[in-house]
Write a structure and sequence with these properties.
Structural class: alpha/beta
Distance between the termini: 80 Å
Strand order of the largest sheet: 5-6-4-7-8-3-9-10
Shape: globular
Number of helices: 33
Strand content: 5-15%
Length: 890
């Protein structure tokens, strides 16, 4: 490599040496005895990361590789750490080695005007985001391309700050001498990886290359490459295997029945929707399948996904659902699917589960699988070839969150299935729209599934207009391949409609009817719009059910994770196909909230529902008489009772008429929906779905009180600032998408706008401190006892993780404003901080956990660690059957 032309930080503050990229260190490493030793040089580390990036790109199918990654992509990744050729970073590594500084290094400190200790150097470097900021400034001077400099400057997760208006020859960066050394390094990397720089990058490609750079740096910084005495090229393949970056291998030429079949192997035959979607998906693009509940949309999407994998036009699948429950319920089906489509010796037979509590379901042995523990970090989960999880995980690929572009890279070129996409508000809907646009740019195959999507929403997702009369059809497939100029509509033959009889009833009448129907042997489903509403109905039915020999259950979000998993597993099985043998043995009443209304294969004989918007009611009716072969009592009929006010009262004062429901759903939408439903005695499913949806949501001029509620929908409720209008929700969502805004940590990134944020109680029966042993003893509700040492080093990572899983299953969520004030914080410094943290323990982001400890006594009442909660307006009780009950003190 060529040597710099001249030396010196400045003429009056000279450096005593010229930096050499082949000898300046990029990192240190620890040997087996824990000794800190010099690691790879900056030049060698950049070579490694460039080589890893080249292998990552090679793992994409050829069609995607050529389209997504322009020439120079590998070079850009390799140049990510050229900023480590800077005086401050150079000095920090020598401090880390705990060796005496040489006279030249001491002179360099003096030239920089710094004190002779590591903290001073580190604090000084933070002013420009450390070596990442130097990389950005240096590459800008070399390429004159701000997009490329931004990419390398954010390889630690967010855009470098403190560098605006800074030049590459800044004194703190080493002046011309050190910039010339960085130019020398770049020239050497260009010789290795090619001289071209990426050009004309789309917004999606800029995110993609930022993700490629970060992922390549993570792998290239792994333990496989620590020891500089070892040949790094020989470690390359093993490092990629350890990170799970191995392309899966599909079985070719599978028919629908080869993939989907009965337990005894009898193949299923595809229905029209499944065949048509398979044929309509002809390449990357956006595809929308609108079809009624129970029509096999999941299998249709997975069959089309197989086609894209088998033809080399996709490299993996992410199946995104609205809730943790729905993603957990589809997980087993997805794993069976993978076993059918992948070669026996192909890796990744076990899909990753991705949502906020997914780690509670992971088996400890899964760390030994390809990418196992490497994928455990939240930000890396989408890098797994196959995963099932919540929509939130995908949304962060479009948001300005830390390492959001890593998620973008993880999704690029995959089949991304977005299920139940109708069920999001304007805040989340705005982010969904941006996500679909990004995925389209990244040549993903986006398959959107919905039973109740409005025409206007569908057209926005497709960037299409609604002038085509075929858009009125239902069921319908809308196809927009990337290679096609427009949208192609494929109307489907509507299945025979089932008539659902409707009755609008009082709550008292519905309670009696539920008991009578259950006594006849029917499986009754009662859906409320709030947790407190569901708990109230349960309290009024459970004792009477017990007296009559009937089963009564309750499902909502305010159970501990342990109890919620138990309840959901049992009741979803009883009301699903697996429960058919038990179905005729007893009548049952299952009460729940919105967790029961979508993406769950449950089948009720009789439905009672609190009134809700049209699309939600349609989803709830989809749980009624879902399967023709379901065994039912002879006296059962397909009927739903709806708890709704009269229309005039609702329009006059929706908050009084709908009560709590008016705070869950917009009063204007509730009134519009009631206008559509109130005069109906029957609903035909699916024939009436499109008709009633469009009647509810079509734009219209309003008069009188309705104009007030419409204005509130768009502008919010001025007297209640927590209730935001559509315009503000969309504006807040756009702020999370802007690259110019501050990058948010994942914990602060709202993928769903919550008017009432949540925290959690950790429920324990006792907490005791052992000052002598420096240990905290926690007693769990089941009687198990955990001993948490105050020092993290006293237990290994596996044991801490085990404790973390145990305690997280004892947490229950509630709204932040309902929490007591003045909580005891001493327990956090006595061991609890070691088990509650976001993400992987080795990558703690120092984000405060949203957990508060509560002691539960034998009666179920909750209190603080040291007695009654010091300041609260609420009483708290917890029971296994009702969950957490929060009531105002009188």
């Amino acid at each position: 490599m060529r040597k710099p032309r001249n030396k010196g930080i400045t003429a009056d503050r000279p450096s005593l040496f010229s930096p050499d990229p082949e000898s300046c260190l990029a990192k240190t490493w620890k040997d087996l005895e824990g000794n800190v030793l010099p690691g790879r040089s900056v030049y060698e580390h950049c070579l490694i990361v460039g080589a890893v990036a080249r292998e990552l790109i090679a793992g994409f199918p050829p069609q995607l590789r050529e389209t997504l990654f322009p020439a120079g992509s590998v070079l850009l990744a390799a140049c990510h750490d050229i900023g480590k050729l800077s005086p401050t970073f150079y000095l920090r590594l020598f401090f880390a080695l705990k060796q005496p500084l040489t006279p030249a290094q001491l002179s360099l400190l003096t030239a920089l005007g710094l004190e002779h200790h590591a903290t001073a150097v580190r604090d000084h470097e933070l002013r420009w985001s450390g070596h990442a900021g130097v990389s950005a400034v240096a590459l800008q001077a070399i390429t004159h391309n701000s997009h490329l400099s931004t990419i390398v400057g954010q390889h630690h997760g967010c855009r470098a700050t403190g560098i605006l208006g800074t030049t590459a020859v800044k004194e703190d960066f080493g002046g011309e001498t050190w910039q010339q050394a960085r130019e020398t390094l770049v020239a050497a990397l260009q010789k290795e990886f090619g001289a071209a720089w990426p050009e004309a990058l789309s917004p999606g490609q800029r995110l993609l290359l930022a993700g490629l750079t970060s992922v390549a740096d993570w792998i290239g910084s792994g333990p496989c490459f620590d020891d500089p005495a070892l040949n790094w090229r020989g470690a390359l393949a093993g490092a990629l295997v350890n990170a799970g970056q191995i392309p899966p291998q599909c079985v070719p030429d599978l028919a629908f029945g080869d993939i989907f079949h009965d337990a005894d192997g009898t193949p299923y035959q595809p229905n029209e929707a499944q065949r048509q979607l398979f044929e309509a998906v002809t390449g990357p693009g956006v595809y929308v399948l609108e079809a009624p509940m129970g029509m096999g949309k999941t299998e249709a999407a997975l069959y089309a996904a197989y086609k894209m994998l088998a033809t080399g036009e996709a490299r993996g699948i992410y199946f995104a659902l609205p809730t943790q429950l729905t993603s957990d319920k589809i997980y087993a089906r997805f794993v069976d699917y993978l076993h059918s489509i992948l070669m026996q010796d192909s890796p990744h037979q076990q899909a990753l589960r991705l949502h906020g509590k997914a780690h509670l379901h992971q088996e400890m042995g899964e760390e030994g699988k390809p990418g196992g523990s490497w994928f455990a970090s939240r930000k890396r989960g989408l890098l797994a070839p196959f995963a099932v999880g919540t929509l939130d995980q995908a949304l962060m690929a479009a948001m300005n969150v830390k390492h959001g572009f890593v998620r973008t890279f993880g999704l690029a070129g995959k089949v991304v299935v977005l299920d139940e996409i109708h069920s999001y508000d304007h805040y989340t809907g705005t982010i969904v729209q941006k996500l679909v646009d990004v995925l389209r740019d990244l040549h993903c195959t986006v398959i959107i599934l919905s039973a109740t999507l409005t025409q206007s929403r569908r057209n926005r997702l497709l960037n299409a207009n609604d002038s085509d009369k075929e858009t009125q059809a239902y069921p319908l497939i809308s196809a927009q391949p990337i290679h096609s100029a427009g949208v192609v509509m494929h109307p489907l033959t509507p299945p025979p409609s089932r008539q659902v009889a409707l009755r609008y009833a009082s709550e008292i009448a519905a309670l009696d009817e539920a008991l009578m129907r259950a006594e006849q042997g029917q499986q009754v489903l009662w859906i409320e719009n709030s947790v407190s509403g569901a708990q109230d109905i349960y309290s009024r039915l459970a004792a009477r059910c017990r007296e009559m020999g009937l089963e009564c259950g309750l499902l909502h979000s305010r159970f501990t994770l342990r109890d919620r998993d138990h309840n959901e597993t049992r009741w979803v099985a009883l009301y699903g196909k697996n429960g058919w043998p038990m179905r005729t043995t007893a009548g049952r009443v299952l009460i729940g909230t919105q967790v029961l209304e979508q993406s769950i294969d449950i089948d009720a004989d009789f439905l009672i529902s609190r009134f809700a918007p049209t699309d939600m009611l349609m989803q709830r009716l989809g749980r009624l008489w879902r399967h023709e072969r379901t065994p039912r009592p002879q006296n059962a009929r397909c009927e739903a009772w709806i708890l709704a006010p009269d229309l005039a009262s609702a329009i006059a004062n929706p908050y009084a008429a709908f009560q709590a429901s008016a705070w869950v759903y917009a009063p204007y939408v509730l009134c519009r929906s009631l206008d559509v439903w109130r005069e109906r005695e029957t609903v035909a499913i699916p024939a009436d779905i499109r008709l009633m949806l469009e009647a509810t949501y079509a734009e219209r001029e309003e008069q009188g009180a309705m104009s007030r509620w419409k204005l509130e929908l768009f502008d919010g409720k001025k007297s209640h600032p927590v209730r935001k209008g559509v315009r503000e929700l969309e504006q807040r969502a756009r702020l999370t998408l802007s690259g110019d805004a501050q990058t948010l940590p994942e914990s602060d990134a709202q993928t769903r706008y919550s008017e009432q944020e949540t925290r959690s109680f950790l429920l324990l029966t006792s907490v005791r401190y052992d000052e002598q042993a420096k240990t905290t003893r926690l007693t769990l509700r089941g009687g198990d006892e955990l001993h948490l040492p105050w020092s993290r080093s006293q237990l290994d990572e596996a044991t801490w993780r085990k404790h973390s899983l145990q305690l997280e299953k004892e947490c229950v969520a509630l709204r932040k404003y309902q929490l007591p004030a003045g909580e005891e914080t001493g327990i956090w410094q006595r061991g609890l901080q070691h088990v509650f943290y976001p993400g992987n323990s080795r990558e703690q982001e120092q984000e405060a956990p949203d957990v508060m400890v509560a002691i539960i006594d034998a009666s179920g009442d909750l209190r603080g660690i040291n007695g009654e909660f010091r300041s609260t307006a609420y009483r708290y009780r917890y029971r296994d059957d009702t969950g957490l009950q929060v009531t105002k003190k009188e």
